[in-house]
Structures are given as structure tokens and as C-alpha cells.
Amino acid sequence: MTPFGRRLFLSALGAGVAAPVTTHAQRAADPPNNPDVAIIGAGVAGVTAARALMATGKCVLVIEARDRIGGRTFTDPTTFGFAFDHGAQWIEAGKTNPAMAIVREAAAKASLDRSEQAIFLAGKELSKEDYARFEKIAQNATRKIEEVLKKLPDFVVGKLLVPQDPLERLAYAMMGPLEQGVENGELSARDFTRQPEAEPQYSVAEGMGAMIARWGAKVPVKLGARVVRVDSTGTQVMVETTAGQIRASAAIVTLPTGVLATGKIGFSPQLSAAKRDAIAQLPMASFNKVALLFSRQVIDAPAGRNVTGLTRKDLAFDSIVRPANREAALVFVGGALARALEDEGGRAAVTFAVSALAEIYGNDLRGAVAKSHATQWGKDPYATGSWSVARPGHADKRLVVAEPHHDRVFFAGEATDPVWATRVGGAYASGLRAAKEALAVPALQRR
User: Fold this and answer.
1) Range of the domain at 411
2) 195/214 same-domain check
3) Do 296 and 375 sit in the same domain of this protein?
4) Are residues 172 and 300 in the same domain?
5) Does residue 323 share a domain with residue 181?
6) What is the mean pLDDT of the chain?
7) HEC letters along the chain
8) Spatial CB neighbours of 2, under 8 Å, sequence gap ≥ 6
9) Over residues 287-312, mean pLDDT
């Protein structure tokens, strides 16, 4: 479930990053508004790059438009009686995912996701025979995609996987909107198959966002400052922000492709046509969560059960019921449905989530909702979506976005990683890569 090692020449930038060692004397000699490296965006990629650079003794300043760090990771620890992650929630493929380094460095408690799955069509759980058929549909879909990719560089998944009945419709939705945040008609087969398998999948007891905030607490960050221009034409990189100007020897840009595509941040010299096109070909997916807290027990199911279904109106959803043994639920929506619910506004997403669960657990559930919240990542101006997706035929554009600009401006973020894009691991790995690239700038090597 997506709901977003490097060979480095310095040992401090290896698989684990040492705790920041920037000294008071260094900061006094090199004040925050004149750092060695200015980092734009305090999400996972920005914090990773900052920690890596600080571990080598470099002075950094992270510039963040929000009033918090973490980017698309954010935990609400109190409202629902459990850690509700508005954004990234899991570390998938935990045996190889680079983001497991964060768990180790933060001394966090990661738990293996062992939740059982129940599947429903129009409120009724699948029969034993349909469960077996569902698994076969999923396996055949993956096999078909891999076979076609042996003959073609890429193709639209939705042209190959055309559902013939509700069971196929749900199985295919779990590959597109409920996994990638886009409809299968917009899904690149190459970008989809690039990702490692999700298992084993881990969650963090305190919440992913809370762990990231704690892990990055010692990184120097200027909050509430929006970058409007990056000028690398002079002897130093000039970063113009709403809170003033910052000069640095190098800059690392970690903003989502959706934010870069708005053009609200200017670059001098202008980004190349190839990079601008690459950004445009990596738009943001739509994936949101609805948290529901009930005033009494209305869901008869084991704690933490994963419930996936297709409503009577043929709308696909995923959910976790009774998370952390609470009388609550998390409902996930993606793709066109997520966009439509955001556009409708108000309590549309909450209403959908309640109705979807009521089809399964009964209408008594409707009157028991005590608290609710629906994320709207598409309307967040500093995210514009949940994670990047490559348009069909453009999976290689991730490497183009990652290329340096004008020798001293570097790009990081999950969108720039060719393997772990859409995931926390991609943001982490890209932060390490960008830190290495910045350290190769001649002006930094002389310091």
C-alpha cells in the first residue's frame, strides 16, 4: 500500500547518517542567512539532505513554507485516540527500503503489518470461491503487464486490464486508484512495475509524521518562508523568500513536482526545456484518507482488519477498521473518486466513507460518528497531491528531474528516485544523493 542504499564517497553519508555535528562556532562564523547549502522544503528529502550535510560539518538552512517540518508526513496524535497519519503511513518492502534507516536513527518502534484482509462487493463479503478467483485475477493482471513490457517500453495499464465484472473492477482498482492514486487509464505500466513489492510492510507506533518531526528536530529550519526565486547566475546561489534573501554556495530543491509545475518559483537561469517537460510528465496523484471515531462499538471485526470493497455504486475504497483497537476507522480513496470528493468539498468524503462502511456494518454506524476528518492533499498548495506519478511513456523523466541545474542547484524528493518514487524511501534516498552532489561543488570542498 503506497498511503507516498547509495554508494557515497564519504562514510558519513553511508547507509546510516550520523547525528548532526554542526558546532556553535561554525554557526557563528557562517550565520543562517549565509549557509553552505540552502535546502528548499523540510519534508523527508530536505531533512535527510540537511542531516547528511551537517554530519560532514557543513552549515545548512532549510526553508519551509509551512509552520512545521515533515512535508507530506504529518501525525495528529490526539484527536482520534491513536496516531493518525494524514500522509505517509507505512514503510513498504522493509527488508530493502532505505527509509528503515530513519527508524534506526530515530530509535523508533516499527511494527510489522500483519492485518488480515476482508473483501466486500456491495456490502457482502466474498465467498471462499470468489476469494480464490480474486487472487487469481490479481496474479494474472501482474503477469499480463510483465509479458507486454517484454515487448513494449511502456503502455497504459487500463488498455490491457479492462474489467468484465465487479470482482475484476475491484481487483484492478487496487492496482490503480487504491495503490497509485490514478485511474488505470492514466497509469504507466513501466512506472508501476518499477516499484518493489510492498511486503514486509511496517508502521511506526508514534506515527510516521511524528517520527520524522522528532528525527529532524535539530535541523535548522526557517518556517513560514515561501521561496519565490532561485538565482544561480552569480558567485553564490541567491534564494529569494517571503522572509528575505538567503545566500549559499549551493541549493537543494525538494519540492513536489506539482508545486514546481505551478511556476510560482522562478529560476535564473530558467530551467531547461527538458526539465520543465519532465516536471509536467510527473503530475501528482490523488489519494486521501478519512478518519472516523465512533461513540460506541458499531464495527464487529478484529482490531486492525483491512477491509476493501466496491460499494453498491461501484466505487472502490480501502479501509482499516478498529485501528489500534479503537472504535474507529480509516477509509482510503484514490484516483478520480478522491479528486471528485475534494472538488465537492464540505463533508463529501466523510459522507462517502460512512456510507461505504454502513453497507457492510449496518446503518447504526451512521449515528455513532463522534469525530471525523478528511485529508485534502490536492488542495494543499505546498503538496498539490499525494505523490508523483509518471504519465505513460514518461517513467524515465524521474531521472531528468533529478539532474542538477546550473551546476549548483540540485533536486531531490520522492519524484526523483527511479526505484522508490511515491514512497518515503524515495525521499530519503534522494536526499542522500542530493547531499552528495552538493558536497562536490568546488566552493564547498574548500570549506
Assistant:
1) 24-73+206-283+395-445
2) no
3) yes
4) yes
5) yes
6) 92
7) CCCCCCCCCCCCECCCECCCCCCHHHHHHCCCCCCCEEEECCCHHHHHHHHHHHHCCCCEEEECCCCCCCCCCCEECCCCCCCEECCCCEECCCCCCCCHHHHHHCCCCEEECCCCEEEEECCEECCHHHHHHHHHHHHHHHHHHHHHHCCCCCCEHHHHCCCCCHHHHHHHHCCCCCCCCCCHHHCEHHHHHCCCCCCCCEEECCCHHHHHHHHCCCCCEECCCCEEEEECCCCCEEEEECCEEEEECEEEECCCHHHHHCCCCEEECCCCHHHHHHHHCCCECCEEEEEEEECCCCCCCCCCEEEEEECCCCCEEEEEECHHHCCEEEEEEEHHHHHHHHHHCCCHHHHHHHHHHHHHHCHHHHHHEEEEEECCHHHCCCCCCCCECCCCCCCCHHHHHHCCECCCEEECCHHHCCCCCCCHHHHHHHHHHHHHHHHCCHHHHCC
8) 92, 179, 180, 181, 287, 387, 422, 423
9) 97
Check: CB of residue 253 under 8 Å from CB of residue 411. yes
**What's the number of domains the chain is made of?**
2
278, 254: one domain: yes
- What amino acid is encoded at 197 in this protein? E
Q: Are residues 186 and 236 in the same domain?
A: no
CATH number at residue 414: 3.50.50.60
Q: Is residue 88 part of a domain?
A: no
The predicted pLDDT at position 115 comes to 79
4 has pLDDT over 50: no
Predicted confidence at residue 195, as pLDDT, reads 83
Q: Would you place residue 32 in the very low, low, confident or very high pLDDT band (cuts 50, 70, 90)? A: low
Residue 78 included in any domain: no
Looking at residue 187, which CATH number applies to its domain? 3.90.660.10
240 falls within a domain: yes
